[in-house]
Structures are given as C-alpha cells and as structure tokens.
Request: fold
Amino acid sequence: MLVLQWIWTETGREAVAPLLVYYALRLLMFILSFVLEDWAIHDLVRPPRERRVALLLVASSYVTWTYQTHTFSNSIETLVVLWSFVMIQRILDNKVCTGVHGWELCAINKFQTRSSLLSSAVLGTLVAFGTFNRITFPAFLLPSGVFLLPHVSRKPLSLLSLCSAGFITSLLAIVVDTAFYDASADSLSHLLRTRPVITPLNSLLYNTSTSNLSLHGLHPPYHHFVASLPLLLGPALFLLWYIRKLTLAILSALSATLLLSLIPHQEPRFLLPAVPLILSSVRLPHSRGLRRFWLATWILFNLGLGILMGVYHQGGVIRAQSWLGQQNLHDLGVNEVFWWRTYSPSVWLLGGKEVVTTDLMGMKADLMIERVLDAAGKCGDGTPKSVGLVAPFSSIELDGWTGHGHGSEHLLFEQVWKTTKHLNLDDIDFEEDGIRGTLERVVGRRGLVIWKVSRPCRDNKS
Reply:
C-alpha cells in the first residue's frame, strides 16, 4: 500500500481512491493464491502425474478464483493451512542419523537437523498466526499434530524451536491487537499495563454463545456435509471414491468438517481450507468415458458457481459502499447508515467520510425497524432526521414499509440507489416458501437497495 500511495501522490492527488485500494488488495490476494497455493501443492504432491492433476483441479475450481481472490480471513487461513502442511511434511521427512555409513551421512543429517529446526520455527509462527487469524484454524491441523507429536518428542530442540516461535508470534499479535483496539495505548509501557486483547480467546467466547451466533443464523449439525461441501466441491465429491490413499490432507479436511459441524453457525467459506486439501488427494476416474463426462460437469459447475458467487452473491455490498463514499452525505441528509442482511461493509471504502455505519447482520425484521425508528428520532421535539438503510430487495418484510404493501405512517422510505447485481443466498428458505416461491423472491427480486428513511412529520422537510 505504501508503493500504491507513492505512485498515487506522483499524479498530484493527496489520497488513494478507496476503490483503487480495494482492487489492489484483490490483485495482491490473486498473486498470493497463484504463487503460494500452487507452490504448496507442488511440495505436498510428489508424483509428477498426480501433481499435475492436483494443480489443474485446484486452479480450475471456482473457489480459487472467487473466494481466494478476496481478503477474507478464510482465504488467508487456506494459505496458512497449506504451508503448515508443507512444514509438517518437511519435518517428518527428516531422518534420524544412524551413524552406519560414516561421516558423509552424518554431515547430511546435520543439515537435516538445521532444516528441521527452521521448519519447526516456521511451523510455530504459522500456527500462531493462523490461530490469531481464525479460531477455526487448529481444527485443520489436529490429525497432523497427532502424527507430529512423536517426532518432536524425540527432538527437544525442534519442540523448543516450534514453541518459541509460536510464543513470540503470539506475543507480537497480542501487542498489535491491543494497540489497534485500545486507542489510548500510546507506548509499550502502557500496553504492558493495560488489559491485553487476546483475539482467539475473544473469538472463542463469542462463538460459544448461541445468542451471538443467532444474529448470524443457526444451522443443523449436518449442514456442512449436505450443503457446504457440495456447494464448494460439486462434482469433485464423486472423486472421493478415487482417493489415491488416506493422506493427512484428506484426514484433516474431513475431521475439520466434522469438528466445525459442532458450531451452530455454518457457512461454506468456513471450509475453504478443505477444498485444496481434498482436490490434491483425489484422482480422475479411470474410464475414459466417465472421465470426459466428469470433466464436462466440472467445467459447467465451476462456470455457473463462478458467476453466481463471484458476481452476484452479496455483489452489491462493495458497489453500495463505494457509491456512499462518492456522495455528499450532508446534501443527501444522511449521517448514519444501517446495513441489514448483508456482508459486513468495509468502512474504509467511505474514504474517511464521517458517517456512522451500523451492521445489523441478520437481525429480525421487527427489531431492525425498532433500531431505525430510534435512529430517526421523533416528531415534534426537533430531533427527527434521515438515516440510510441498505437491505436486499428480496427482503419481503420491508414491503409494508417501502410501498410494495399497505404502507406505514411511522416511517417514510425513499429509494436513492439500487443495483440488480446482488443475490442474498442467505434468504433461501425452501421449507417455508417452496422451490418456486423461493426462486421468485431471491432471483426474481434480486438486488440491493439504499433507502433514505425518515419520519413523515408535517414540519419535517427532509
């Protein structure tokens, strides 16, 4: 970003446009995924023919060119999981010196010992970083940790290297998080005296509370197996019958899916690290006809899901926030914006504009209306004002307020912006609306709308 800022200032402009920063970050994630993900698979899959298949499957998966090009913590988690596996494999590949063949073998093993210490240190750093990035990270390393434990127990220097690197990285992460979330912490001594921010602990406490998770949506324990994995892998699920061998990668992917199924809130992106682990462990069908049929379905599946997830699913969030950042919100009469049933908006896309952004997540409709009513003030006491509401057009609960129903005397909704390149797949409810009703609502009424909401007071001219 410093390079981008330097290039931008050379054009005579003071600040980098937020949308340019967004696309620069997307490009950076694409490069990281292209280089680091392929490099990791190249190291993990040794036989050349199997390696080519693994690289082809991962590169052609829509998950790689949609999710992995976003700055999701899940995308970063995927890269850290893969490289943790690379380090684990390098540690396990090192052999103990037997001293049978004399000086030459011992010299090689001294090099292997140094390599093992370095790999252990890197692994400790990755484990700490991955855990602070996402609390779900350890679930993907559980089986590997079981296999690694006997090795490090025989090599205390490797264990010391791993633990020391992990401790230093964790300490650094705590200092950085505390400094970021505590604005008053202006020195290291103040940081040591203040209450530290331990992100994994806070995340664990938050995600073990059902009341917190209910704000995001609750799912049955089997949701990951019947919905998330099929959505991410599609025809590749069929290839589980063609696993080359039961590797640590496939064990980790399946065990992590099982562990994460214990959490009531489940989204497909939580299983992103499982995708390259599974795709690098399978092989194509032996039959030429079956292989051609599978390749055709694989191409169609990834083209369809690539367009759906890469363009339409929550596709209006960046567009809406970017539009708000380009407007004079004072002239628009809005100084607070509520987001409902969307991904959390990136506040920095507003370009420093002083506007309060409140993410209502998946809050129930009646509670959402109460929040908007409170923010809009009251008539007669000089406090009524206009607020913004960003919500999917498919949310039929708003019809009674926005003019598609019987209307309301409490709030006035004025549509100021809309895009049709937005699908809210979290709105899908086949059990309640049926297949046809759900498709008519979610697809037929696709879009994201920005409403200017105000009290319809007689003396309120806004």
User: Anything to note?
Assistant: The first strand starts at residue 334 and ends at 339. DSSP finds 20 helices and five strands in the chain. Residues 15 and 373 are 36 Å apart (CA to CA).
